[in-house]
Every structure is written in C-alpha cells, then in structure tokens.
Amino acid sequence: MQSALSISFSQASLPILNRPLCSSNAGPSTPRNLRFCGLRREAFGFSPSKQLTSCRFRIHSRRIEVSAAASSSAAGNGAPSKSFDYDLVIIGAGVGGHGAALQAVEKGLKTAIIEGDVVGGTCVNRGCVPSKALLAVSGRMRELQNEHHMKAFGLQVSAAGYDRQGVADHASNLATKIRNNLTNSMKALGVDILTGFGSVLGPQKVKYGKVGFPDNIITAKDIIIATGSVPFVPKGIEVDGKTVITSDHALKLESVPDWIAIVGSGYIGLEFSDVYTALGSEVTFIEALDQLMPGFDPEISKLAQRVLINPRKIDYHTGVFASKITPAKDGRPVMIELIDAKTKEPKDTLEVDAALIATGRAPFTNGLGLENINVATQRGFIPVDDRMRVIDGNGKLVPHLYCIGDANGKLMLAHAASAQGISVVEQVTGRDHVLNHLSIPAACFTHPEISMVGLTEPQAREKAEKEGFKVSISKTSFKANTKALAENEGEGLAKMIYRPDNGEILGVHIFGLHAADLIHEASNAIALGTRIQDIKLAVHAHPTLSEVVDELFKAAKVESPASTTAQGVKVAV
Amino acid sequence: MAVSSSSFLSTASLSNSKSTISFASSVSPTPIPSLRRVVFRSSIPASSHRRVMTVRSKIREIFMPALSSTMTEGKIVSWIKTEGEKLAKGESVVVVESDKADMDVETFYDGYLAAIVVGEGETAPVGAAIGLLAETEAEIEEAKTKAASKSSSSSSSPPAAAEALVPSPPPATSSPAPAIAQPAPVATVPDGPRKTVATPYAKKLAKQHKVDIGSIAGTGPFGRITASDVEAAAGIAPSKSTVAPPPSPPPAPTATAATAKPTTTNLPPLLPDSSIVPFTAMQSAVSKNMIESLSVPTFRVGYPVNTDALDALYEKVKPKGVTMTALLAKAAGMALAQHPVVNASCKDGKSFSYNSNINIAVAVAINGGLITPVLQDADKLDLYLLSQKWKELVGKARSKQLQPHEYNSGTFTLSNLGMFGVDRFDAILPPGQGAIMAVGASKPTVVADKDGFFSVKNKMLVNVTADHRIVYGADLAAFLQTFAKIVENPDSLTL
Asked: Which positions 248-277 of B are in contact with A (Cβ < 8 Å)?
C-alpha cells in the first residue's frame, strides 16, 4: 500500500516523505521484495481513497506516456531511450518477471512483459499459490480429524468430511484471484503486457507472437529472460494426467486416490503427501537418495520424518529410482518398477492407484533463440554470473541480457526469482547490486511447517573447516514456547548455526507451528548483516511464537560484545 | 510477564550442541566418558568388567541415556527400528523424551535390534536396559530369551517381550469359557513366497498389532491388503470411526466452574495401584466376536443325559488313545447329521445356510486366550481318527501353528467344563454358527424310574444355545433327544 503511494512521486523530489513510507527505497542496497510470491501491490485497486486518487492520476499520466511513446518524444518516467522501443523487455510474466517489471516501472523504465501462457507463471497458477489453498484445507482436516488434539482442547467435533470439488474450486479460485491481482497491478502501472511466445533474435532484439500469427519484433535496451520451469519427468515414466500425474495435474485435485506413490520427497512431494494423507489417501514415497527429505538440515529432516511421515499412512522406499511407471489401464493398477539407485539392479515392483512425479523441475528454455546469441544451456539452465548476466558459449557476458528465476537454476523459488529481477533492475538503472542468495528463506508448508535460511549444519561445518572458523549451534524446542503449548502444538525444533567469534548467523532452520512465518527475522538479520549480540537485545511480544527465534538468539554464546550503536551495522552482500 | 517467562524459556534451550546422543560401550577399553554418552554396555555382569574385553559376548544392552544432568528417567517416544531389524553404526534406533526435548539415540555398533525391553510410551530410569542389540542374526533368539526373562521380572512388561516364545503351560483340552470363532492368525506361517501387496497403512497396522501380513488375504482393489483387512485379522474395531460422540450432556447447572471437569465417561476411576493390560490380538478377537454375538437372538435348552454306558465305553477305548472330547464330538456329529437345521447357520437374517459338512469346533483354553480347533467331518471320521486329529490340533494350537481353516471352519461348537466339576453352564453362540453345546460334569444322581424304584445313575447336563432365527425350540429338543440316545447307547459311536 505504502509503496503504491511512493510510486506516484518521484523519489528524488520527496525523499523525506518517501523514507518512512517505503523503507525499501531508503535502505541503500537491501534486496527488497523477498516475499514469497512477490505479490506486492496486488491489492493496488483496493487502496484507501487517498492513495487511490494519486494512483489514478498516475495511471492517467502513464497512459499518455504510452501513447506518446510511439513518437518517442515524451520525457520523464517511462520514456524509452532513443533508438529502442522499450527500456526493458521481460520474457515471462511469472513472479520473477512481475517483480522485475514493477521495480522497473518504479525506476522509470518503459517496460514490456511477454507472456506466452498465463500471467503469474508456475507459482500463481500451478505452484505455490494453489498448493497453499490445498494445504489450508489439509491443515484444517488434520486438526478436525485429530480426536486426541481436539479432546485436549475440550472440543468435540463430529466426523469431518470434505467435498473434493469444493476443495479443488478453492484452489482454482485462489489462483484466478491472485492472477487477476497480478495482471491488474501491472496494467495499472502501465506495463505493456504482450501476448505470445518471446524469443531472442539478437542483441537487444526480441520477437514475439502467437502461433499462426505474424511475429512482432521489438527492441529493448535490456532484456530479462524469466521463462521459469516445468515439472521434470524422468525417462521411462509415462504421464497420462489421470493416474500418473505431475504437480500441474495434482493441483487440480481431479481425484483423491486411495493409494498414491509420490516420486521424490523434496518440498513438492512433502507438501502433497500432507494434502493427500489429510484427505484420506495412503502414500508411498520413492526417493532416489538414501534418506527422505534430502535437501533439509539432517536434524530437521529426522524430526520432520518422525512427525510428518512415521505416524501418517505413509511408507517409503529410499535409494531407488522409479525406472518405469505405467499408468493404470486395462483393469490394471499403476505399475512402478524400482531399481537400486546405485547398482541399477531391479528391486521391486509397486502396484498403486496413482503416482505423482515430484522429482523437481526442469528449466523452460527451449525455443528462446539462444543460438542467435551463442548461448549454450547447461542441462537446460541458462548460465549466468552472480549478477544474473547471461554467459555465452565462450564464457563471455552477453551484453544487456539477463536471466532470472528457475531458468537460471540458482535457487528455484518464486521469491528468489523476484529478488533476482529486482537486483537486475537495480543494476540497469545504475546501481550495482549483488543478491545474497544465502539470505533467501525457503519454506515447506506441511503441518507443521519447515523453514530455513542460509547454510545447513553440515554445509556450515564444511565451510568452517575450509575457512578456519568455529561454528556453534543453538537450539530450542517449541515445547518451551507458551504460545505453541497454548495451541497444543509443542512439536517442533528451531536451530541456529552461527559463528561464536563474531556473532554472524550462518543458518537458521525451523520445524514447527508457523515456521514459514518465523524465519524472516533470521533471514532479514542475515540480509542486513545483523549480528546475534545485537539482535538478541531486541524485544519480542509475549506470548508469541516469535519467541522461539528470540530463544535461539538468546541461547547463542557469542564472544564479541554488542555493537555500541545498534544501528551501526554494515550491509552484507 | 515477558521477562519472567523468558528466563524460564531460556532454561529449556538445549545446552549440548548436538542432540543426537550416541551409544558408547563399556566394552571399549576407555572408561565410560560420562553417563550421557553411555547407552550400550555388554550384558556381562558388571562385576566381570575386567574380563569383558576377552569375553566375546555379542549381545549388548541398550540403556536409557541421561540426556541432561537433571534427568532421572526418560520416556520412549518411539522405536525407530523394529525387532530383528539390522542396524548400522550411526543410525538412530530410538527416540527418547526428556523433560526438554525428544532426542534420537544412535548406535555405535553394527548389529541387529534383537529385542525391545521397554516399549513405546513407557518410561525407564536412566541406566536401565531398554533394548538388546545382537551382533549377528543368530544371536537374536538368545537375546530374546534374555529379554523375556528380563521383562518377566519387570513390572512394565512390554507387549513385545510378552510375545516371546515362552513354553505355555499345557492347555486344558476344553475351554473354561464358551466359544469364539476366527481369532487372529497370530503366528501362521505363509505358505510360500507369493507377492503380497499391502498399503502403507496396512503394513503399519500389521506391525503395530503384530499380525503377519503374509497370512492375510487381501480384499482391497487388485487383491491388495488394506488397513481394514489387517484390522479384521487383528480383531480390532476399524479406526475410521471418527464418528462424533453424541452431544455432550448439558453442563452441570451449578456453575462452580473452576473444578468442573469435562468428564465424558461415567466409569468410576481405577482404584489406586490397579493396572491396565491391553488386549493381545487374540483377546481382541474374542472381544470383537463376543460383542458381535449380541446381535443374534438366542435361546437355550437343557437336557439331562445318562452317561453310564458312555463312561463304560470310555474306559474301554481310552487305552487306544480315544479322548472324551472325541467321543462327545462324534456323538454330536452323528446327532447333527439327523438334524441338519442345528448344523445350519443364518448369515444374512433372511435364509438358512445348510452346511455341507459337519465340522465340530471345540473350545480350548490356551495360555491367555481361547481358540476353537475344528474337527472336520466329525460325523464321518471314526473315533480313532478323530482322536488322532484332535491331538494334532491341540498341539498346533499350543504352538500357535493353526492354519485359518483349522479354527474358523466350524459349523457347531462344543464347550466342555465338566472336568472342572461344573455341573451346568450356558455358552454364548459364536457369530456365524447355529448352535453351541455346553457340557457339564457327569455326576452320580439318584433317579426314580416310572415304577417308583430309586437307582443311582451318572447324569450329565447338556445345554445348547441356538440362533432362534433358524433353530426353534422343538428342533433343539429333538436334536438333544437324538444326542441323548446316542450317548446312552454309545455302541454306534465305535462303528
């Protein structure tokens, strides 16, 4: 809301007013908008009237500029540089592209975004957003079905049931709503939304068009590729969209199978196991690595397995590949052939009602015209440097071309894409910026949730050994948190990995109630370079879950004293 | 408020930097580093510590670790490994709850988790043995025996150890209580390697209730074993009954709220020092069948039978290995052949199901349970074969080796408490059968004949419980008359 207001004024003209309203402009190099889906200003149209007035004015003026752009004579915000149609063209209107577009407009760039499918990309249409709708349902089902839990509250609930179509509608309605908000926010700011598949023709030149229509060619001073990713389906697996499905299909919730195998136990697989078991399915995990939840801190994944897997109707096979999956047909169930991940020997055959392929995501970079600029993808990913500048086949930077989000594979999270997009806009508008990926939090929305930022314990220990510093761990249990106990949700663990010599936070991992919301105190501290000895003096409201993080800070034993001025903190990038 | 609670909270954060505790062992030459680390030690008596290093004992005890300096006892949250499972060094074996957090306990040794001494949810003092680790598969049995002796002396005997194969006292040939059909196939051995498909929850339930998944016939889609198949096999009520309890009674009118506890049950509380022992799978099966039996309208008819001739015959054939059970079963079988309706059953409440065979189930008490081995074709087999068969069945029942068809194919049940001096009792009709016969003791009785002469005869009271939907009073009376005639003129039994 506040940032919406700030757009309508030029930053330079009202620096004092701007500062408190839009703190992200004030922080000189803080990566802003690290929100999960970068949905800032999605509620633009619902701003209180005061802001709305200024916005309307702004929109109006933008329209004029757009029409004036044809003669390329308008001055001020959004006027393209002399010989280009646009200052910035973004290929892909997912969360990354959206974040970049809004930042670009704010910086006064004339911006276009090319979308070949639907605005919002994976996150909004086939990812985080609809899955959160399903998980909201599964969380409530889980609670209502847990007689023991209800009894502990003194509550009595009659048999909880659900209507599959109703649940599915909730997910699709949410996706539609968020998509419209996203579209409207870009339209309102005057971002040109161009429809069709975009591809790079050459330096600073892009063509786009729908199939069967003539292509349009536009030029831009800078180009951002933000084409995202699609579900990765390993060889040998036949996806029919009904009994063998990917997350794209699963989010439509067209059926709730009695027994579903989930191939892959990362974020996607875990979240779906939470949804399916809450709705009554039984789940079999198939994981290629030796342990479930391989990406998480080992201690967290151990506890998570004890809470999220063992007591539920879930079993698992680890260290195996699903070498062949055949959809159900001719009166036969879904057949899954398992082979040993190391020896490739056949191990087992499973017969289940459905299989969900959650083996990760593959970059969507085909047909982008990368050959025109001599860029070779690596396993589909577009190589970039730490400023998201695209690197060509000779290891040289391609001028004015950037790639953000899943397509570069640095950190395949919606909010990471958005942060990368903002970072690129910062650079092309004259301020050097390197995003600290270690400050980007991640969350898995199971019940309870898992969240993390920075390094895992093994990673930190490896780094410490290499660089010769000491590592300490502080831990606290949700069992010691008043609010968690009031909610009867004492199951959980928070852990912080830090340097005892200077108080630097290396990583924080939380498993417990609302962990996804709790991580940001830690991720902000990492992003801003705040040291433990300073942040431990900050005050938390009691009783709140945030005290779990407070406990971590307070339990840490740091050798160096608190800075004399808490504000005197340097920004770590 | 915030300050005070904060200081409380900070004590709860863990002081050790790694909450995974590992087992150390006193077998190692180094002294026990600290209590916190010691979870394993050799099962050799502590007095022989010096010699421990030379003795090749490969069974180690897993001890309750001290997770903090204040901890005196710990609760087992869960065993991550099951009995017989292979352990690799560094793997988590058990989760222990202290006052502060749950911690995984790892093993320092490769081996097998041979026995769980303290089960999930139970508490043990720090340093007490909670499980046994065998180095090789061969030593698992030895460790189990150890665990069994350990648990028999312990008050908190875990269900796992109770299942250890301890020879049971010889069962009475007949049961002290009536009838049960289809108990869980507790230890039946699968016929051979066949592909069983069981759903994840079915597998979990089977493990939990110690049901051999290979012995269950799947009824789910594509013949797979589902949770309800396992529940049926274990004889437990389906867990899906999340059906709400009826609305709670209105709150007590007197609003002395502070002490008003929302008690949902009217059962009086347990007396102090009482103990609760959960049902075994077999006991659960009995319980389930007994509740089910309440839905059948039954009635009872008693009949005195003169056994002088039978007793005389029994004396004659006893040396040939014939038992009273076989005699009675044969007599009942022959009587049933003439009264097929008593051998029928009512499956759906709409029709008679006349059984093609006369299979007499005989209730037998076995250690802590009740099972009904079945004498198939009791009317057709001769007395000697029947006796032989019976011996075989009792042997199998004792060792829990009965195959399902050997205890669930009965069409009529015989229950005999006569050997305990019981003169009469009535039995509960097992679901799926038409009638059950309760046999009392044969006692010398003074009888007057129609001419007024007194004499002393051996009389036995027989009481039959039957399903009145298919068997009526006259049917039962006629059947009993036939039965009495056969017993009183028992020569036909030996034909």
From this structure: 248, 262
Which range of residues forms the domain containing residue B395? 297-493
| Count of beta carbons in the 10 Å neighbourhood of residue B17 | 11
B429: CATH = 3.30.559.10
User: Could you tell me which chain A residue has the CA closest to the CA of B242?
Assistant: A159
**HEC profile of A383-437:** CECCCCEEECCCCCEEEEEEECHHHCCCCCCHHHHHHHHHHHHHHHCCCCCCCCH
Cβ–Cβ of B242/A259 closer than 8 Å?
no
Task: Tell me whether residues B20 and A299 touch, CB distance under 8 A.
Answer: yes
**pLDDT digits 0-9 by tens, B242-284:** 433 344 444 444 444 444 444 445 567 777 777 788 777 778 8
pLDDT tens digits along B96-112: 876 556 677 777 778 88
Q: Where does the pLDDT of residue A269 fall: very low under 50, low under 70, confident under 90, or very high at 90 and above?
A: very high
A484 close to A513: Cβ distance less than 8 angstroms: yes
Task: Determine the 3-state secondary structure of A511 from DSSP.
Answer: strand
Q: What are the start-end ranges of the H helices in B200-280?
A: 200-209, 227-234
What is the number of domains present in chain B? 2
pLDDT at position B181 is 40
Structure pTM?
0.58
Residues of A in contact with B101 (CB under 8 A): 475, 477, 479, 493
Residues 6+ apart with CB under 8 A from B54: none
With CA atoms as reference, the chain B residue closest to A328 would be: B222
A211 contacts: CB under 8 Å, gap ≥ 6? A197
Question: Could you tell me if B493 and B369 are in contact, meaning their C-beta atoms sit under 8 angstroms apart?
Answer: no
Last residue of a domain, one of B122, B147, B172: B147
- In three-state secondary structure terms, B333 is helix
Chain B residues near residue A464 by CB distance under 8 angstroms? none
Residue B192 belongs to some domain of the structure: no
Measured distance between the N- and C-terminal CA atoms of chain A, rounded to whole angstroms: 27
Residue B474 lies in a domain: yes
pLDDT at A215 over 90: no
* CATH code for the domain in which residue B123 is found: 2.40.50.100
Residue B71, in any domain of the structure: yes
Residues β-bridged to residue A454:
A507
Residue in B13, B78, B245 closest to A310 by CB: B78
Residue A115: strand pairing partners = A195
Write the single-letter amino acid at B102.
D
Give the mutation candidate from B106, B199, B230, B263 for the A interface (greatest A CB count, under 10 A): B199
Instruction: Look at residues B92, B112, B147 and tell me which one is the last residue of a structural domain.
Output: B147
List CB contacts of A68: < 8 A, sequence separation 6 or more.
Answer: A74
As a whole number of angstroms, the distance between CA B9 and CA B5 comes to: 6
Active site residue B468: yes
Q: Between chains, do A156 and B200 touch, taking CB under 8 Å as contact?
A: no
Of A319, A320, A323, nearest in space to A336 by CA: A323
Q: What is the pLDDT of residue B100?
A: 54
Query: ipTM of this complex > 0.90?
Result: no
Residue B200, min C-alpha distance to chain A (Å): 5
Give the percent of chain B with pLDDT over 70.
70
Chosen from B7, B14, B79, B225 to mutate, greatest number of chain A CBs within 10 A: B14
Q: Which of B9, B95, B200 is closest, CB to CB, to A306?
A: B95
Q: Is residue B364 part of a domain?
A: yes
CA-based nearest residue to A118, from A179, A63, A164: A179
- Rounded to whole angstroms, the Cα distance separating A198 from A225 reads 9
